[in-house]
Amino acid sequence: MRRRIRALVAALSALPLALAVAPSAHAADPTTMTSGFYTDPDSSARKWVAANPGDGRSPAINTSLANTPMARWFGAWSGTIGTAAGAYVGAADSHDKLPVLVAYNIYLRDSCGGHSGGGASSASAYATWIAQFAGGIANRPAVVVLEPDSLADYGCLNQTQIRERQGMISGALAEFNRQAPNTWVYLDAGNPGWVSAATMAQRLHEAGLRQAHGFSLNISNYYTTAQNTAYGNAVNSELAARYGYTKPFVVDTSRNGNGSNGEWCNAAGRRIGTPTRLGGGAEMLLWIKAPGESDGNCGVGTGSTAGQFLPEAAYKMIYGY
């Protein structure tokens, strides 16, 4: 592993004080062990461009989407998870780049929203899966976003299921801390329009946030970076007041260039946002949701399935119409 120690003083000095001094689960900083973020060579946008070189939309999608670093999502479709995660971070490591991975396989996943329902067959099956995920990453540098929506999506769960979910999340954090010491893990905290900052702070803490590096915001949504920064700071204020600590946060900017129109599922007229980078009002701005991939059978993606690449939606998102 080639390790390039690069100072982040300038980036950190731009952050709110609470974020700059937030405690970390690990001493290691994967951003200083790599030379930039990894671009997935098998992203849906890249695959579509390669398969459709004569399509008039290909140049724009290639330039604006296919060559932008973004997260790869892992779930049941990934096959043997330890092998899949290990291969991905290994490829990134061979290029001295930092990969962003999303673990998306929690038991009763999206049980309230429904468009991305599924996940592990039981809490114990999830524990096995996530342990293998962490083991696949091992000591290579990585960023992991842990189970989008899992802490905001409580509306149809009973208290027993909520406690079970909290146990799955805290158990996952323990595995990453044990097996993947150079990985920063972020618990997902929904978005500014979903759960109040006070409620989210409590949910994050009860799920083990103290063991994590930080929390993530706006995954697969459209709220502006400024709105997310205000919300993240409000969550940190609640964490500080109630529990005596704060945490860094990252924002998914993949589709927030035009902000939100109140719709969350394949909303029309949205636009790609600031590409993946350090800083920008948060610890990092990341493309976590791949622009152009459907949220499900809804909105401008009517007739599609969650995760399906929609070239027309992708093309329009580049220009914001």
UniProtKB/TrEMBL annotation:
Query: Which PROSITE patterns does this UniProt record tie to the protein?
Result: GLYCOSYL_HYDROL_F6_2
Superkingdom of the source?
A: Bacteria
The residues responsible for catalysis, as annotated, are 149 (proton donor)
Q: Which Gene3D superfamilies match?
A: 1, 4-beta cellobiohydrolase
InterPro entries in UniProt: Beta_cellobiohydrolase, Beta_cellobiohydrolase_sf, Glyco_hydro_6_CS
Q: What is its EC number?
A: 3.2.1.-
Which EC class, in a word?
Answer: hydrolase
Q: Which residues form the signal peptide?
A: 1-27
| A GO molecular-function descriptor | hydrolase activity
| Pfam families in UniProt | Glyco_hydro_6
Entry keywords, A to Z: Carbohydrate metabolism, Cellulose degradation, Disulfide bond, Glycosidase, Hydrolase, Polysaccharide degradation, Signal
Q: Which family does it belong to?
A: Belongs to the glycosyl hydrolase family 6.
What is the protein's given name? Glucanase
